Amino acid sequence: MKALLLCLFLSCTFVFGTHAQETIPLKEYFRDLKQVEVTIQGQTYNFLFDTGGGETFISPEVARELGYTPYGRGVAYRMSGERFSYQKMDSVRLTVGKVSFPQTTVGVWDVMRVLPGELPKVDGVLSLKSFQGKMLTIDLANNQLKLETSTSLRRQRNKLTPLKSRFASGLDGNELSVFLEVLRQGRSYWFLFDTGNISELLLSHHTAAEWGLQNDTTSQRIALNPIAIQLGNRKLVSRAAAESILYDGVLNYSLISQARFTIDFTTKEVWMH
């Protein structure tokens, strides 16, 4: 009888456990930039949360504290086309909230190099790459991330709007960025999903010209009137600007915060609430 009760208890624990969702709070950093507490080897650090980052980064100082020796070189490009390089380190286990995120590799790079010097120090960047194999809901309006389970996602599916998306893995297949389709005049334009873009919704000069928002493809930044873009069955409005960037466009924090987005990294699907 005891064995039977124990078996039933373990079975119920497993079933209920699969229904559990983990909520990760986002903390204020600067303007709309958010940070997340990340624990590595028992030490807690503050990382920026940036869905447009492509790679998860740890500062060289943290790498030294943890006893890692960085190696090799990775090369990446910022949206402006600016090239930068970084080193790598292997087998890093990040813990966010109660969830562990084993990382095959992370980049070693000091994000403070591109932030204003008067801002508080952050120790790294948490990107979408860290959530590979997970199902993640991004809810900026409520300052939280939510790790979905197969059960919780299945319960919501009929209420979610699927979005056409692309999952990009970078030059060497080691990054992870998400692009969403924006339809305009019957054509598909692909915008980087970038919570770290706290300025305007960005359009390339070619995109802005094709949309009739500027007369040429000049390399100078141009401020545009607020525009509405169609995502799924909704129109979201944001201040906008045209810049010389690598992509058709880049979504910004203001626009992303107007909805909730769920990303299934296992099936490479994106939905909007």
Briefly summarize what is shown.
With 273 residues, the protein is an alpha+beta fold.
Any idea of the CATH class of the domain at 152-272?
Answer: Mainly Beta
Number of strands: 21
Strand content: over 45%
Counting DSSP H or I runs of 4 or more residues, the number of helices is 5
Secondary-structure element series: HEEEEEHEEEEEEHEEEEEHEEEHEE
For this structure, the CATH topology of the domain at 152-272 is Cathepsin D, subunit A, domain 1
- Unreliable segments of 5+ consecutive residues: 1-19
InterPro entries: Peptidase_aspartic_dom_sf, Retropepsin-like_bacterial
Signal peptide: 1-20
Protein name: Aspartyl protease
Keywords: Hydrolase, Protease, Signal
Tell me what the structure shows.
- This protein has 273 residues and is α+β, with helices and mostly antiparallel strands.
- The chain has a domain at 152-272: Cathepsin D, subunit A, domain 1 (Beta Barrel).
- Helix content is 15%, strand content 45%.
- It contains five helices and 21 strands.
- The strands form three sheets. An eight-stranded mixed β-sheet has the order 2-3-4-9-5-8-7-6. A seven-stranded mixed β-sheet has the order 13-14-15-19-16-18-17. A six-stranded antiparallel β-sheet has the order 1-11-10-20-21-12, with no helix packed on it.
- The longest helix has 18 residues, at 2-19.
- It is globular.
Explain the layout of strands and helices.
Elements lengths: L1 H18 L2 E4 L1 E4 L2 E8 L2 E7 L7 E2 L1 H6 L5 E7 L5 E14 L2 E10 L15 E3 L8 E5 L4 E4 L2 H7 L4 E3 L1 E4 L8 E8 L2 E6 L8 E4 H6 L11 E10 L2 E10 L5 E2 L2 H4 L4 E4 L4 E4 L1
Parallel strand pairs: 4-9, 5-8, 15-19, 16-18
Antiparallel strand pairs: 1-11, 2-3, 3-4, 5-9, 6-7, 7-8, 10-11, 10-20, 12-21, 13-14, 14-15, 16-19, 17-18, 20-21
